[in-house]
Every structure is written in C-alpha cells, then in structure tokens.
Fold CCD17 protein.
Amino acid sequence: ALRLSYLCAGGRNPAILEQLLHLQVEATALEKGSRGLCGSRMAEVPPAVPAEPPGTGTRGLDAALLAMELENRQLEDELLALKVGRKRRADAGSQVAQRHAEELAQLQAEVGRLRCHMERTGPQLPPAILPPPVAPPLPP
C-alpha cells in the first residue's frame, strides 16, 4: 500500500522504489514467519539492502516496470479525461448551435408574418412633413 501510494503521488525515484520493494518483501516474510514458521527459518529472510547495486537485477526491473505501468495508467486516465472533456464541449456546442437554429427559425417566421401583413395592408407612407409657412396666413 505504501509503494502504491508513493507511485500514485507521482513518485519515480528508483532508489525509493527499490527500498519500498524490499520493505514489502521483508513484511511478507515476517507475516509468513508469524503464521507458524520456525525461528530458524527467519534467518533465511532476504536482507533489506541488496548485495547488488540499486537499480540492477530483477527487483529493480520489477520496480521500474511497476512505475512504468502506473505512469501508463495515469496517462490513460488523462487521455480519458481529455476525451470526456472534448465530448462535453462538443455536446455543449451542438446544444448552442441547436438553440441558435431555433432562434433563427423564429426570426425568419416573424419576418414572414411581417411581410404578409405588409402585403395585406399595402405600403403605408409616413405622413408628409411640410415646411413651416413663410408668411402669416391672410385674413379671409
């Protein structure tokens, strides 16, 4: 659980991964020992520090493989999140486009109604605006 927590938090240091792997092996050996293994068998538990330099051997490769696998999972999760986000934006965009199309249809219908009304009533010119009289009106 500790190793997975470290990997999930973004830890990638091979030395720490190696130590966590050794701790896991040691904990597993201790659990087996507490279940009824003889005390003399406890001497066969692998040491916490390897005889070979860190990063070599199968344990180092296992740790590197696990780290790579976790990173792949994280990348897959990010990719899925991007795909979901893109789909949501596309859905939102199509909803906006649909709303705009409905508004456009309503406006076109309104223009059509106004044209029909204009054709029935005929053209109506605005009242003529006459200039003010130049001289006062003549008496009768």
